[in-house]
């Protein structure tokens, strides 16, 4: 369960609705079926035209992914890869066969199996990199659906409001009703801008952040597999893999750098 | 027949029109000839200036492409390429001559013919990559016509509305008529924004998604041709080609990865 | 004469003006000197600040280029290059000297002359690529003037309209005159948006499309010169050069691919 | 303490508030709780959905970084690196061990330690470059939170204003109150645009400028470590490192270039 | 003196003011202190937060650069470099020492000195390229200040106008005063949009155009230094350097190409 996704939606929607109610607004005034039809139907239409079915059918899976939090632990992964490298170095690559075959992670499993099977390092690297790239590209294409929805929704809101104004202004006999009618027309803009900025675009952002972490994990696996295939020293492999997560825990490092800079500047004063 | 293209247009247009009618609007109020002339004529003009005739004449073909769905089956393609590689390895490249000559796909046919004819691998790679790139570039240029139309249409809508307001405000003698006249002026904005967001831009998106799949297919063919020319083992070729579609069927792989992450995190708990 | 440039302007302007007149507007209402002064003068000023004189003075030449259509024939060019390669292979590079010296195209002439003069292939490649790049960059810089004008014009239109409104609202004594005065203020927006979207931006697009074709032609010449200098077989040179235009005539190829896809999908059904 | 960050906020906020007050506005009119709730709550919600917790928790550290100014002195750093290189060249890499271990800067310390430990130059380069890249990427991801807030805030302002207008227009019984009510609705737009343009976006800019300087420092260290490991002459190392800061003190160089250009042009006159 | 910068500002400002006056506007209505405070103070604040002091202090120098025109003459530069190469080839690199030391251009001087000092070609290339890149990056960072101001100014204008409207609408007792008060509020928008589009953005454009020419000059010097160090034939160096400016004088070349295209098309007719 990724708490920030749900929490963010709750914070956002609550702030908007509460703000409206505290101003004295009637909560019922925010619900309007025709505006919803225009904005959500229009966005759905534009998205459906934009993407092939093979992409569209991934929406539920991507949604689920945005709300669940994978528990990646790169440090555990480094440990595991170093251990595998130690075995490979001591007992040969073949000694990894049973562990590779049973490994729960499909990328690591297939990569290790190919290394065990003696696939040429050059070819192995090419295959694993291509796998990472196509996987990322596939996910990016699904994420672009949310970005497209975030682009279309506000324009559908504008269309809904303009249509409302066209309707209102064409039948302007009763000026006393003008205000409420325009208010209704504005609801479409509200739906369009709010759905884009509280749903589609933030979800796309979250999914992209997730994808980046996933890619990092796969790249660490790739580096680990190639290094153990090359028979590199486990210590060196550890150092290499640690560089991938160097940026992750810079709190202490940063304090030291700040201290360094301060010391330097006091010396120069 | 690409059902999503047509379906999306139906969903989008129906949502907009239905929303307008349910609000009590007169469907006739949405049709206005002068607005259509300004928006569609203006967009056509801007697009015609923007592109040379050699590109403009591709519009009908691109439109047709957006509404038809090619039945690409990358797994079948892999099978075929592996089979060709098996023949080439067993009986030599010349054994492929008749199959190459008769192959229905022009890129594969010409690529195989060149391999059979003994074109130098380096040159073959250069030629096939250049072919893929120029084909993609050519299609992208045609797709940019739709993107350009999607950029010009809303501005033409604004021009139409401003011209309408100029007309209305210059002849403001009869204030009772002001509302309906402004309503009419807004129709141009409606046409501009709706045509861009329900036609031009989504169609450009669809065509780009299509192009990406096409490119993937050609790249698989390229990899297959070069690999069989190099006499690589069919098993390796299969593995290489499978990496292209790894990202395509990740449902099972993803479940495994999730299970892996969960297991890892429970272990760490 | 590039008919699409002129035709597009005619279509665009006619659509706008006709739409306005059909709505009952007075054509004279669209002409207003002060709005023109603000929008076109302001755009001219912003563009003049933006670019050095060495770029600005290219505007007339670029305009002329947008309205004339070069008759490039890549197939003829291939023929010519292959013929030159045949001569070079049979009789040696020196046999090209007189043809090179008299060649009407300066890039081809100078490139051939250098090849004949025995310039080192590496250096020749570097020089010709640099020539292509700097030529493209120079043209792009001039095209960016039109793009900049297309960016500045609508903002100048907004400035004109806001200034008009400032003037109108400061002297609001006569409310009966308010409508026509606001109408006049809107003309500036009209000029700004229309000039950007019917002139500056489409012309920049056309010039970029032209530039792309020009680059392709120069790259074909580069490839041809280097290949004939290397003494490659004319047949191979022809195949290589054909890859540049493969994307150009894909009508037949595409029909075949569609047929291939259909056949494949029926087999899989 | 980075004075420009605080100073800029003071200048910006003072200018806005003072301008409002000088126009005769009541300062109290700028404070409105419901608008603040909608804009800041909505932005917080959108940002919370957009980023995983591992990024969000970096906000306080990034904020602190935006307000403090590191005293980097690239010239001191060059001095130090050249001195280290001199020692390494004279007494061997091992002579650096104690200095490396005690070095306050973590990147330099670890890089030097690896050089002393005899890590292969190729591997050392790969590890240090990866460290720089992942650190930069990690910081960029945190900076993108501010950029996202700067993108969401104005749209939340629009949402707040539209909701205010919906409320106002639905209860239009008392037209005398219409003005002040609309004024209140506009406060949300004010909050959204001002928070984005006086806080989120400028802070993101500052953090990116800071990041660029940090990267430069790390790249100088990388170059220094690799050069001293390769046993290059300290003089050459100094020249190389000086090139990193060449662009930093161009005042004198520029004057000379100007003089050169002037001289050249007078000669050509 | 770069005449186009000043001329452009004069053209732009005159057009706007003259247009306003010709429409019957009072020139005094365009001056308003509070709007200026909000727009220019707000922009200054946002820019001050955005950039470190080390960048901000370059503003005056960049401004001066935008208004002065360097008299670069690439053809003279080629002449000079070819002459230096001739000397180096005939009498050896050392013969350049005195000329190098006295050369007024710092980049050329230091580059030649290093070549004379026998710096390894690989290292020399790396150092000179790094110098060019860091110089360009440093200048770009300063130019981005103007671009940032051009982005912030219009939003500050919107803030000023919204604040003005808030003030006006809160005190709507005197409707007769409504028009002039709104007019005053619009002045802020005017300042924001006009300062961005007649100052900040065009100046950034000009500075970037200038930077591009500067880079070209430095790259020619780099090429020249490396070539003369390698002892290449002056004739070849001349041809190489000429390729940098090939794009600069294409008038004749283009006429020839047009003639070529015409001839070709008439032959094909």
UniProtKB/TrEMBL annotation, chains A, B, C, D, E:
<keyword id="KW-0653">Protein transport</keyword>
<dbReference type="GO" id="GO:0071978">
    <property type="term" value="P:bacterial-type flagellum-dependent swarming motility"/>
</dbReference>
<dbReference type="Pfam" id="PF20560">
    <property type="entry name" value="MotA_N"/>
</dbReference>
<keyword id="KW-0472">Membrane</keyword>
<feature type="transmembrane region" description="Helical">
    <location>
        <begin position="29"/>
        <end position="53"/>
    </location>
</feature>
<keyword id="KW-1003">Cell membrane</keyword>
<dbReference type="GO" id="GO:0015031">
    <property type="term" value="P:protein transport"/>
</dbReference>
<feature type="transmembrane region" description="Helical">
    <location>
        <begin position="145"/>
        <end position="169"/>
    </location>
</feature>
<dbReference type="InterPro" id="IPR046786">
    <property type="entry name" value="MotA_N"/>
</dbReference>
<keyword id="KW-0813">Transport</keyword>
<feature type="domain" description="Motility protein A N-terminal">
    <location>
        <begin position="7"/>
        <end position="90"/>
    </location>
</feature>
<protein>
    <submittedName>
        <fullName>Motility protein A</fullName>
    </submittedName>
</protein>
<keyword id="KW-1133">Transmembrane helix</keyword>
<dbReference type="InterPro" id="IPR047055">
    <property type="entry name" value="MotA-like"/>
</dbReference>
<dbReference type="GO" id="GO:0005886">
    <property type="term" value="C:plasma membrane"/>
</dbReference>
<feature type="transmembrane region" description="Helical">
    <location>
        <begin position="181"/>
        <end position="201"/>
    </location>
</feature>
<comment type="similarity">
    <text>Belongs to the exbB/tolQ family.</text>
</comment>
<dbReference type="GO" id="GO:0006935">
    <property type="term" value="P:chemotaxis"/>
</dbReference>
<keyword id="KW-0812">Transmembrane</keyword>
<feature type="domain" description="MotA/TolQ/ExbB proton channel">
    <location>
        <begin position="104"/>
        <end position="220"/>
    </location>
</feature>
<keyword id="KW-0283">Flagellar rotation</keyword>
<dbReference type="Pfam" id="PF01618">
    <property type="entry name" value="MotA_ExbB"/>
</dbReference>
<dbReference type="InterPro" id="IPR002898">
    <property type="entry name" value="MotA_ExbB_proton_chnl"/>
</dbReference>
């Amino acid at each position: 369960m990724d708490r920030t996704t749900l929490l963010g939606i709750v914070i956002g929607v609550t702030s908007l609705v509460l703000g409206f109610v505290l101003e004295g607004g009637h909560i019922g005034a925010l619900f309007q079926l025709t505006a919803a039809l225009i904005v959500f139907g229009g966005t759905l239409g534009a998205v459906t035209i934009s993407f092939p079915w093979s992409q569209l059918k991934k929406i539920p899976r991507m949604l689920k992914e945005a709300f669940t939090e994978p528990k990646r632990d790169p440090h555990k992964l480094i440990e595991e890869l170093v251990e595998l490298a130690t075995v490979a170095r001591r007992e040969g690559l073949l000694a990894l066969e049973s562990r590779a075959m049973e490994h729960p992670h499909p990328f690591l499993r297939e990569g290790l199996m190919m290394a065990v099977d003696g696939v040429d390092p050059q070819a192995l690297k090419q295959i694993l990199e291509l796998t990472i790239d196509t996987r990322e590209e596939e996910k990016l294409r699904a994420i672009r659906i949310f970005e497209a929805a975030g682009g279309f929704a506000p324009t559908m809101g504008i269309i809904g409001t303009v249509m409302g104004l066209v309707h209102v202004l064409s039948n302007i006999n009763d000026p006393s009703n003008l205000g409420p009618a325009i208010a209704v027309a504005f609801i479409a803009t509200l739906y369009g801008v709010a759905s884009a900025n509280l749903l589609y675009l933030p979800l796309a952002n979250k999914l992209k952040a997730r994808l980046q972490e996933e890619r990092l994990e796969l790249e660490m696996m790739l580096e680990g597999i190639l290094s153990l295939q090359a028979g590199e020293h486990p210590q060196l492999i550890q150092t290499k893999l640690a560089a991938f997560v160097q940026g992750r825990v810079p709190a202490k490092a940063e304090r030291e750098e700040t201290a360094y800079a301060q010391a330097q500047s006091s010396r120069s004063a």
